[in-house]
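Troubleshooting log. The previous structure file for this entry was overwritten by mistake, so regenerating from the original sequence record. Sequence copied from the archived sheet and checked twice against the printout by T.R.
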Amino acid sequence: MIDIGVNLMNPSFDHDRQAVLAAAQNAGVKKMVITGSCLKSSTAAAAFAKENSCCKATAGLHPHNAKDWGKETAAQLRELLRHESVVAAGECGLDYNRNFSPPAAQRICFEEQLALAVELQKPVFLHERDSFDDFFSFLKQYRPRLSGAVVHCFTGTAEHLEAYLALDCYIGITGWVCDERRGSGLIPLLKQIPADRLLLETDAPYLLPRNMPGKKSRRNEPAFLAHIAAFAAKITGKELEEIAAETSANAERLFTGL
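Regenerated output below.
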């Protein structure tokens, strides 16, 4: 299996990062993509991936950090995106849920990262929350020139899913689908995602699968991708091995060099 979104540079992993990596590999997660959400985490992710062959990284500014965008930031990000260990631009997008950065700043930051991805021919690792109309407007404009795109941690509607698939985007599903309180609406939609468009991710340390037995803490880990994959297999009526093979092939197709 491949975890296409793990925040491995999060401070919650500072004391046992290598052990978390080993546990993931023992659970069948042979590769993972470390999410970069600011310059600091993107730089750290790229360096860690360079030293650990089972990892690659993304480099970008999450919409929460869009207020930090500027010419110097863009220049540093361009250099990061040229690193061999960096396989995608992002996490980037729009998030109007909490507006930790002003919406206007988010839109500038998002569009300029899309332009960078086009320039360097990197796929994009995308974030959208409570901002579909603006988000989709930018994505639709740039998608024909992008090498690829994944809507990370998809939690949208059937209409949103149809729109993304029409743009030939991959869809990232997390442990959100395992939460009967918030994720039940994803279950019927998971069945509508074509086999060649589905990707799996933990978004660790966030989104610990609610229905996973034996939880000892609230920290999610890439090893728990096996639980998400098994749940997705059950929903789609497939064997675990089949969905693992399909989603891994999709990840390798999207992320060149993975």
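The longest strand covers residues 86-95. Archived copy saved in two places this time.
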